[in-house]
Specification:
alpha/beta; six-stranded antiparallel beta sheet; eight-stranded parallel barrel; TIM Barrel; 15 strands; 11 helices
Length: 382
């Protein structure tokens, strides 16, 4: 039996190790509880992020849908039992669940409640960490309800304070429990997210985190009416815009964050438009479109759908700069851009070349045959 002092030392050493890159890259998969049971493949993952826990107005954290979420969480615990090295995270917030972050982070009492209830969740469910998916500090992504303050000029500095206080609390709890509790975030990847009126902040935030999950996708999507890539690895010289995964990674590195703290995000889905002009190359890329290919589904195509439901009129193409696949039907002008197996391999190799901590993806159930997961795992040596 380990003495209490030895437990504290073990937790301290584990916490220190969590702050440096591992020799085996991370492979982190988000799991959306509403999307059904995830496919097999947990043995290849280093972590699963359960999405999403709810953040209440008083700052407390709880499961969003107890009737269904508890069954999903139990399934994740069983996966961890079979694969003890697997880390389980509860991800708080998300695109539609970030409205209460600003008020919580701004108030010390609410921050304390957030930290305490997060720790209660970790201990109760046997999870290893909390992932904070605040979209976005200083600029709420989705609509804000009347009478609620969803963003403040101080959000980014408040986020730094929250992460610092949470790190201290979880490290102290880990010393008591004999384990290392982890903190990660899902982070925006443009200059707007990185900027801060009070000065550089990302490196100070990252100092309290085990790693940063970069949301290096959705550079283009349903809010536009031009056919473009979801997550271009490098900029195509023919592209009308300059965004790319490589530019986002370089932005974070320039902010002073060590590459070993950065996990590269990849999408297990594509986006599509219809009524697109063929353009000079006849593939619809970068052309004006009349509307969305699937208006009832935010024009999102899960990889499994594209894998199983390929329409014969859709002509495939590959862009070496973007490391992304496209489909185009000249008869209807339907265009779809998505990451395929080749994209996964290219991006995993990129992550290793740049010394990043690993790769993250959204989301497990979108790859039911495990095609993309296997490609990532093979390239990352998992």
């Amino acid at each position: 039996m380990i003495e209490r002092g030895a437990l504290a030392l073990v937790a301290l050493l584990a916490g220190a190790c969590a702050q440096v890159p591992t020799t085996r890259p991370e492979l982190v998969g988000y799991y959306a509880s509403w999307a059904g049971q995830p496919a097999a493949g947990a043995e290849r993952l280093s972590a699963i992020d359960f999405a999403f826990l709810a953040l209440l107005p008083d700052g407390s954290v709880q499961v969003a849908n107890p009737a269904s979420d508890e069954a999903a969480i139990a399934g994740l615990r069983e996966a961890k039992r079979r694969h003890p090295g697997l880390l389980l995270f509860g991800s708080v917030g998300g695109w539609t669940g970030s409205g209460n972050f600003s008020s919580m982070a701004h108030d010390p009492a609410s921050r304390a409640r957030f930290i305490a209830t997060s720790l209660e969740f970790l201990r109760r469910e046997g999870f290893d960490g909390i992932d904070i998916d605040w979209e976005y500090p200083g600029a709420i992504g989705t609509g804000c309800p009347a009478g609620v303050t969803c963003e403040r000029p101080t959000d980014k500095e408040d986020f730094v304070a929250l992460a610092r206080e949470m790190r201290a609390a979880l490290d102290a709890a880990g010393a008591v429990d004999g384990r290392a509790y982890r903190i990660t975030i899902a982070a925006g990847v443009d200059s707007k997210y990185a900027s801060n009126e009070a000065g550089p902040w990302l490196a100070r935030l990252a100092a309290s985190l085990d790693w940063v999950n970069l949301m290096t996708y959705d550079y283009h999507g349903t809010w536009e009416r031009t056919a473009n890539f979801v997550a271009p690895l490098h900029r195509d010289p023919a592209a009308p815009t300059h965004e790319s995964v490589d530019a986002s990674v370089s932005l974070y590195l320039a902010e002073g964050i060590a590459p070993g703290k950065l996990v590269l995000g990849v999408p297990f889905y594509g986006k599509g438009w219809t009524g697109c002009a063929p353009g000079p190359r006849g593939d619809g890329l970068y052309q004006a479109c009349a509307g969305l290919a699937r208006p009832d589904h935010e024009a999102t195509f899960e990889f499994s759908y594209l894998e199983d439901q390929r329409h014969p009129g859709l002509v495939p193409a590959w862009n070496a700069f973007a490391a992304e696949a496209t489909l185009f039907d000249p008869a209807t002008g339907t265009f779809v851009a998505y990451d395929d197996e080749r994209s996964m391999r290219e991006k995993a190799r990129y992550a290793r070349r740049r010394g990043l901590r690993g790769v993250m993806f959204w989301e497990l159930t979108a790859d039911r045959r495990g095609t993309l997961l296997r490609a990532l795992a093979d390239e990352l040596g998992r």
